[in-house]
Prior knowledge:
The complex is a heterodimer.
Chain A: H1 3-15, H2 42-45, H3 49-56, H4 77-94, E1 120-125, E2 134-140, E3 143-149, H5 162-165, H6 167-171, E4 181-184, E5 188-191, H7 194-210, E6 214-219, H8 225-237, E7 241-245, H9 252-262, E8 277-281, H10 292-300, E9 313-318, H11 323-326, E10 330-333, H12 339-353, H13 363-369, H14 374-380, H15 385-397, E11 402-406, H16 412-424, H17 446-458, E12 461-467, H18 471-474, H19 481-485, E13 490-495, E14 507-510, E15 519-524, E16 527-531, H20 544-553, H21 563-576, H22 583-596, E17 598-600, H23 603-609, H24 622-626, E18 638-643, H25 657-660, E19 669-670, E20 675-677, H26 679-685, E21 691-696, E22 701-708, E23 716-720, E24 753-765, E25 769-770, H27 785-788, E26 794-796, H28 797-802, H29 806-809, H30 816-823, E27 838-843, H31 852-860, H32 868-872, E28 881-888, E29 893-900, H33 909-913, E30 919-921, E31 927-929, H34 939-943, E32 950-951, H35 956-959, H36 968-973, E33 986-987, H37 993-1005, H38 1018-1022, E34 1028-1032, H39 1039-1044, E35 1049-1050, E36 1062-1065, E37 1067-1069
Parallel strand pairs in A: 6-7, 6-12, 8-9, 8-11, 9-10, 12-13, 13-14, 18-23, 20-22, 26-37, 27-36
Antiparallel strand pairs in A: 1-2, 2-3, 4-5, 4-14, 15-16, 16-17, 18-24, 19-25, 20-23, 21-22, 21-24, 27-34, 28-29, 30-31, 32-33, 35-36
Helix pairs in contact in A: 8-20, 9-16, 12-16
Chain B: H1 23-42, H2 77-80
Amino acid sequence: MDKKYIDISENIIEENKELIPAPSASSDGSDEPKDINYWRSFRELYNDPSFRKEKSMEFHPGELDKPDLNTFSKFSRRKFLALLSASAAVAASGCSNYRDKGELIPYNKKPESVTVGNPTYYASTCTGCSSACGILIKTLDGRPVKVDGNPDHPVSKGKICAIGQASVMSLYDPERLKNPVERVNRVSPNNMDWKTADEKIIAELKSAAASGKEISVITHTVNSPSLKKLFDEFAKAYPTAKVYSYELFEDTPRNSAWEKCYGSKNYPLISWDKANIILSLESDFLGNEGNKVETSRLYTSGRDAINGKEFNRLYSVEGNASVTGMNSDYRLILKTDAIEEFVMCLLNELAGKEKISSYSSDAGIMSKLQSFNLKSFAEKYNLSEEVINHLVSDLKKNQGASYVSAGSMLPESTHIAVNMLNEVLGNSALYKKEVSNVKVMPLSTREELENLVSDLNSGKTTVVIHYDSNPVYHLPPDLGYADAVKKAKTIVSLSESDNESSNAGNYVLPVNSMFESWGDYQTRNNFFSLQQPVIAPIYNNRQKEDILMTWISGNPDSYNSDSYHKFVMDNWKANILSSAGTDSDFNRAWYAGLNDGVVMVSKKEAAAQEGENVPAPEVFNPASFVSNTSSMRSKDGFSLLLIKSGALGDGRHANNGWLQELPKPVSRIVWDNYAAISVQSAKALGVDSNDNISITTQSGKMDIPVFVQPGMADGVLAIELGYGRTVCGTVGLDAGFNANVLMTKNPALSRWFYNDVKAEKSSGKYELVSVQDQYPMDEPLYKDIQYRREIIQEGTYLQFKENPDFLHDRHTKYSEEETFKLKVGSINEQYKHTGTKWGMVIDLNKCIGCNECVAACSVENNIPVVGKEQAKKHRSMQWIRIDRYYSGTPETPKASFQPMLCQHCDFAPCENVCPVAATTHSADGINGMAYNRCVGTRYCSNNCPYKVRRFNYFNFRDHFKDGIQLEESFTLMQNPEVTVRSRGVMEKCTFCLQRIMDERQMAIQENRQVKGSNVKTACQEACNTNAISFGDQNDKESDIFKLNNSKLAYHVLEEIKVKPNVTYLAKLRNVYEIEKEEAHH
Amino acid sequence: MNKNLPVSNNNTGSGILPEKLNRKKFFVFTGLAALGIAAASVIPFNLFRSNTPKPAASLKIKENPNAVKRKSKEANSELNNG
């Protein structure tokens, strides 16, 4: 220690001693510190003398000690720099330019019809499920990049579901089967060539046919006339061949009830748009039942407040918390096994007491109903008497203009009762007469499937062909198919990717996806739709029909990749377009059909087509109701509902990352399924969310985590199927739990509904990830925040009719001073957007929270899949989200859905804080993002009040599942019009700027102004209910201008004056009660 | 100037740099670095990498010649009203 410094400082102290106060001086002269409330250490608190001495010294003892130079490194600055530059030189020479992907050479001979960079559209048909919706496939540079609905398709009318939207990912899945495979001893797969595969399989088929052994072809729904004809030819070539078809979800109870009531096998199509009152009984028609694309569009056409149409009213009676229930005006929570009793009580009330129908004089019917009483039922199940009264009154007033919909999972007896109820109400007026469903080939019955299993076990069936199906996974385990099929000598799986069924087989043959296939489909009697391949097979795969034709010919060398194409054409020439006389007429009609994707059938031709598909006679058979024995009795145990997944379907899309990451609309959970349970039932079992429970049915047992779902009925469990795949690609493997094990082949009620279920707490936990912050409903800070901050503004339809200005009148209750402050403009100078100003309007009356827009945005804008772990950290990259807010109590909540995306604020708080000006505002109102300027400070995200900005914490394409998204085929999936973002870059909704640029380019070419209505964002295009409108806010003729200036228009967080360009139309609930204003503040 | 004020001598560098790199050594280092660069560009370091499976052959995308392009994305009015 250099004494010189210490001495000097001590001298200073000595010289100025009178100026320096005593270390522990205080006003009362005590040694205690002045303020005992704030202290940083115990030494300070207890007035340690050594602490006081240290406080008096400027430099801590040792602070001024000269450093020991011997401890310093001898490595000099000069040496360091020399080595650094040498290392950099070596590194630079070793690195190649990773951006260099080779040369880009334009067409040497450009095809006449191709303009590089301009997309080409093809009409086709989606085969993601059995609905066979019409689609338009957008291709760029010869590869499909986007799927949207075909506007000419009479069912989908330009819309498609999330599964259809995300189907491009399945096309480019790198884990698709690439070559035919022979599984030696059904274990080790060996690649083989097609000729060898065909030779071996043809030999097996011939051998089986010659020895009288059955050849079983197992497929999903056959709704293709040409495929049916092909199967008939296969059966001719191999007389012992038999085709079985099945679905995991189908309408057997509904259809069999209809047959008993009306004598027809086809349930009619419903005019949902003409129904004033809809009563949904465990029927999620807005979620995953029926053709949701069509039904949701028709339903929401009756929820249009702006165009002056009268609102319909939706009552929902359910045990599950479904999308339909959450969108209903009145919701009664009722355990599912009590629903049939409820229908009977309602029937008694309307037919028995109110006598609204001629059936009231039918003694048989009345005697069946007399024991039911609606009032005592409501008391027994604690249902709101007021709501019940409204329901009865509405049904009575709207006879012939209402519809009672029973869920597909309910048993036949409930459907018969509901048919009776609809008949009493005169609702057959809403059954479409001229258009009906068509069944090209009926599904196999349970008996047929049982016979198949028994034949497999006995050896009568020796060859099984899984025709793009997965019965080992789908069929109920107690049917015994999984074990029985292993006894077959030869199992051939025709599949796009490995699955549980192909894993059990000898031969696995890769087949074309829907983008690579020819086909034709008929789902209704008034049109046919066509499917055409837009891309040649990516791998060494073949169309399954072509494979079948090779086997029919018996000669492996006869394979021709165009054979089924010709087959379909010939079939159409002979049967469907037989009215076209000459070849040239036929060709014209055929190519017109391919262009449009749809061929309408005249009424005469439709009548000729109808064989088994005779429209329902209008005469209801009351004896069917009288003789109907109710199989549903309310029991004390749990009721179990097995539900179709809106994203994964029956599980065939499990390897699609976009669909796995799509949040479930109500729970907002991603990547897993769970057992939804009510608050009270969870307490009774002693479980909370993420705890495992064990569920036992007569067929099986499983452990599954629980999710406490507000709004569920007590004693009800609801589980989505399609999860828990054990043979799947990397993405879908081990996602969720396989609840198919709980299904039984002989259910007492229906395959998807069991009310004799045992549930108990099991060991362990499993973390479920919800992308919606689940604020506890009893947390006073967050309760009803969506109303208190006016994020969601709601009213009632009655309120709106009486006073259209009710929404804005609400604000006049502020004081004069407050009102003045609200009206004062910002201190910032406002930029005048005089030209085009892009804006969006979202109608909350039509938004049902289905998440189709989220899927479409992901596809259009190259959104990466992040995986469950990252989603848990709120790092999902989806640019648009559907916020779901609850209000009310956890037992009886109301839900409000609100799409939230970048609001493109005129005074965007994100733009002001970016240190590198990576986010700026354009003259036409777009908040732009320059990815290559962004340095990742995330200040913009911090400042965004809507929390719509997404940061690439990783290069998620590299980070997720060992970089599967970097596989070559997935790079083909990217939309080349949108930048693919990398790590460290912020991104957000751009209002589909690439589509705006397309319109600008067209406007320049055509020498006109940009027209706002020509631009449709991906979310707008996908929204089944047309809830989203987009366009030029300055165009006074446009729809968006009118919507922006409508009485229901408001902005979210308007008071912070960021001037968002996204307007919402307040939600109106069509209830009798006017909502009290206090509820919103 | 007050001679009693403390003066820091920490920045004089005395004792930290006992020797400078001499010219001979500098050129030796540079020459070695140049040899290293030349060697790195010739030696196939790929051989020492772990055996990763070969990437799949480059996918060739080919349009189907029989597919019929749609004339426009918009609805055909006749069909749409059907």
